[in-house]
Design a protein that fits this description.
This protein has helices at about 15-25, 40-55, 85-90; strands at about 5-10, 30-35, 55-60, 65-70. By secondary structure, the protein is of the alpha+beta class. The chain contains 3 helices and 4 strands. It has one domain (about 5-90): TusA-like domain (Translation Initiation Factor IF3), CATH 3.30.110.40. The longest helix is centred in the middle third of the chain and has 12 residues, at about 40-55. Strands 1-2-4-3 form a 4-stranded mixed beta sheet, covered by helices on one side. α1 packs parallel to α2.
Length: about 90
Amino acid sequence: MTTTKLDLTGLKCPLPALKTRKALKGITSGDFLEVHCTDPLSAIDIPNLIRETGDKVEITERTESRIVFLIEKTNGLIEEPNGPSPAVKQRL
């Protein structure tokens, strides 16, 4: 179990969510991704991304100047936002 740190301070929407998605693809199940953001919209975008991917937000820290997410990679699969669900893919 390892923790990868991703510094996205200074980046504006949609870059924090896009870079978080890309970083999640590069880690294995059971590992953690620690994401540091300054864009207030990250507090909405990254939890929504994590709901799509099926991973888990362990800790969210928010101060006036930054937001920190600790994300646990749980399933090793990132779905496309508009793609079919895994159950639908199995039937195809």
